[in-house]
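Input:
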Amino acid sequence: MGDIQSSAPILGARKNVDPGQNAVKRLQTELMQLMTSPAPGVSAFPSADGNLLSWRATIEGPEDTPYAGLTFKLSFEFPANYPYAPPTVLFRTPIYHPNVDFSGRICLDILKDKWTAAYNTQTVLLSLQSLLGEPNNASPLNGEAAELWDKDPTLFKTKVMDRHKDIDDD
Amino acid sequence: MPAAVASRFQDRRRRVFQSVFHTDLSPPTPQGVPLPSANLSFSQGLQYHSGTGPTVGSGSFYEEDTQATAQTGFYNPSDQGLLVSHTPSTSFHSTVTAVSQPSQPQLVPPDTGIGDQVAYDNAWRLVTARIALPSTVTSSTPSGSPPQDAALPCDGEFWDALNHIVNASTLLPGALRTDDIFSWHTHQVRAHFSQQVLPRLLDCLNTRPPEDGDPERKGSNQNGTNSITYERHMVIVMSSIRTLEAALGLYSHGFDLLVQGVTHTKNAAASSAPGVNIDVLASRFRRDIHALVGNSASQQLTKSLRTVLVRLVGDVLGIPAEGDDARNLKSRRPAPPTVDDHKALAARQRLHGLVEQLHNVGLSGERFQVLFAEVMDWMMSTFVCGAYAGVWSATDRRSLSSVLNTVSRSTGSSVTSPCIISLMDWVENHFARLSFEVLSRVSHDSVSPVTLSDLKTYQSLALSRLSTLRIAELFDIVLAWPDSRGALDDLRATITTSARRLQLTTHFTQALKTRLLHPGCSTLEILQTYIDIIHTFHALDHSKVLLGHVEPSLKLYLWQREDAVRIVVTGLLASPEEVRAARKVKELGKQQAEQKKAGKRPEVETRRSAGKGSLVTPTTRGVSSRTPTTTRQREKLDMDASSATSNKGSASGTGKLVELALLLNDPTKTRHTLVEDEELDWNDMNWVPDPVDAGANYKRPKSEDVIGTLISALGSEDVFIKEFASIVAERLLSLSDPARFDQELRVLDLLKRRFGEAALQNCDVMIKDIEDSRRLDDAIRRAWDEQRKLAAATPVTMSGHFLRSADKRKKAAALQRQQQQELEPTQYHARILSRLFWPGLDREHFLLPDPIVEEQKRYEQGYEHLKSNRKLTWLNQLGTVRVELELRDRTVSVDCTTPQATVIYAFNDSDDGDLEIDNDNKPPARRTVDELYNTLQMDEDLIASCLEYWVSKNVLRRLRSPSSSAPTYVVIESLSDPIDNDLPSQEDDTFGNPATTSQEGGAQPAESAKEEGSKQTIDPKEQERRTMYWQYIKGMLTNASASMPLAQMAMMMKILIADGFPWTNEELGEFLAEKIAEGEMEVVSGGKYRLVKK
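Output:
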């Protein structure tokens, strides 16, 4: 009993959707999830130019870790075949951490070979948040930090505070 | 040596210039100047001079000079004669050299012929002095005779000298270095032309405001329409002509002198003049001069000439000039001038004069002819476009008949289109005539420049232009059908080649794509246009081949429109009332031609108003007949919910494709379809072979068969039949009176012819079901009546204030049927449908009111009594109910659907309906959606829409309770009741029934009420959305950028929220303002928003 007027044109078959389109769709959904059920201490959002394949995220340092009270900015770059390939995640805020090097690159298995399409932005952020409290000292990018983490927590904390610097947003 | 050379130099140079450029030629140069230096100085002087020469490129001169210099350096003095003979081809140089020749004798080594040489040189000097050209050319001497030589000196000295020169070989055999005096003169003319005349011409071109009174120009000015540009160009042309005339006068004067001299010599001496043929010389001279003039015509002059020609030719041919002052449309449209049109006559004379003048001065060469051809070509295009664009109907017969007398043999008798006839006439009597007149004035040979075959060419050119115009207009022609038949006649007569047919189809397809097949056009509009296209193309080309070529894109697009089939079917099934209304509209449209142009919309509106008068009253059976949408516009709200069919029609608001029903009912059209399948008619005198561009499987159709074309255009027959079945099902279920199935049956017949009996078996069964149901229904009720009589009938009064009769349709497991109930208060009818043959009818579960359920049970029993082994399955949602609501101050009687009736019945107070009537103090019944959901087990959305229906009927009122978000509905027992006396929250109930609800039929449409409701801030969904948006904003400002302007935020939201972001920037601004007020946000510099840091 359709209304005659509701004759919105049927768009042509969407056969040749460009692959990035799927990623964008997925990211839109992820964003919606992030917004409707936000996890504490983490948040993420597409960058200001409206490019859905490039996000900015924020992690608050967990309590009872040397990073308590600090916030860290990250950047997510999603490939066009996301979620079948992991996003490239970088710390934009300088951070002193065993698994993060000085240019912000992160050593985390789920961002490399352990990635599956079941992960999403939120899980990545939560993993990173927990990584702050529990670094994987077996495969450090920052050897000194890995050493200090166990030997001298006080010095470690000092180094963390020295290195940390709130970055201004664009 | 250098010093001496230098001084001689200057002296020499001065004399050279004097001898060349001044009329008062100084006496022969003192001889004794060393030749090499002389020649050198001469060339240098030239070099110097060429820098100031205004018109001749100095480069070319320079080259010649250096060449000459080199030669001079190379040759020894005795070879001077060689130099001369080498260079005559270089105009300027050789001229000067020739002049300087008389100074040579001294240097010539003494030999036997020295005396002859001297004599020759003296003679040469004398003659050249005589015929040398003046330095100025003025147009003030239009007579053409050189002023300084008013009296022709015919003294013997001149003749003798000339004789010597001309017959040098015999008279002065000793003179070795002789030259042709005629070529000398020609060279000098060339030099003079480039040095003196061309600058003058340039001056002419630069003449801006014409000051000097030109009588002829004044004459043409009397027409009063000459624009300033035209005048200016005219002045340029005329002054150029005058200058040239003056110059040519000078040149021919010198030439005449020579010729006379030669003739004189011949006559006097009668000696054997060796091969000086005067005629040959004269024609060569004229040719040279004309070539000179023709090649010198500058672009500026050409431009001016073009303007002048365009104006004059336009006047002659009746084409208004672009800048014409007369703005009114009548005069704007080109039309052949009448015989006594003074303007045209004047222009014609002026043009003739101009062409002759041009011819005389040599400007009528190829360039002019090309220019004229271009102008004429432009004129033809302008005339065709101007005179016939948008002129589709026959021009008035008066002018036509006059034209018919003049136009002739050249056009075949088959052409009847008035446009074409008048165009042919114009080409023959104006265009070709003018061409002839002009070309015969400029052509040299006696052969007629415009032959009859040329005329045919012109006419075919004009025709092709007309066809191009019509092809470009074709889409508009289609829209204007049937008033555009005239244009189609033109087109039919002009698209004679397959190339042009191809052009037509490609162009039209393109027009379709840009003008029709886009989302802005409703399917109805597209289909209506399609019908016009079919008509138009059939009129254009009976073979339908052209139509076949333009259809594919249209078909392809229509397949994307889901509702196309439905529109076609409903159009076919349009009721007689609609058809009648449509007919009226057609008649109306004929009277008001301008409405046609406006498109279909006025038609629809008129149709509505036409239908208003015939309101159909509900039948006594309690089921309203399915009145057409148009008859019930006033009760639009009723329609919204009363039945699927009418709902669809009225909600769309655009009417139906009644054209189809019209065609279907047109007896002439039907006859055509009957003939269709017959074999080739051998007696058909109008038979023509199939068009060349027909396809391989081409089969000639006999009629335009709009319906058939349309149906076949809509894709596979399966789709169509399915859609048809479902629509017929709807209609059968909604129609109460089986006598009105005519239309359906007729369409069914049509479709059967097309698709075959088997394909439409379902529909047959469906119609039969309905007919059977009626009989069965009667039988069951008769059985009841008997029972009741036996039971000594104590009539049961139906409870309360509603429900008089009901009419339901059900579906049985194997069978379907209808039932009617007749209790005094409640009549129950049913229709029994055969499940397998009806298109999918879903069961929708909800609880019917108890009395109805009882009726159903009784009906079921009666049915099973009649037909054992069969069961009924009730399809409750498909019924219609006549409801009568007795409210405190009024009685509302409405036809509605079963769910609607069920919902309103639920407001019937549980204890007893009488209570409400009896007890005025009892508060009106109220229900919420949730309560109804629990009691009725009906789909919530359906409940909501039913409630809105009753709100629109002024039976219910919606309240919003402060506590719960779900609205409460309350019965409006009395229209005079204050809106509310017990619920404070109602004060901000802006959307309910404001003030007194007594406005007539004034309830708002259910739709809008719903929308307004959703905007209330309390709406939970809205609240949810706002929370979500706030999350987005927070996420955005936390991560993407710490501060952002409003517009960017809105844009981001629009991009990022998959379901869309419906807020405007203003709404977002309000929202953000709220957040600022709550201390969540702040505005920083540049109007950017950011989160407050905590």
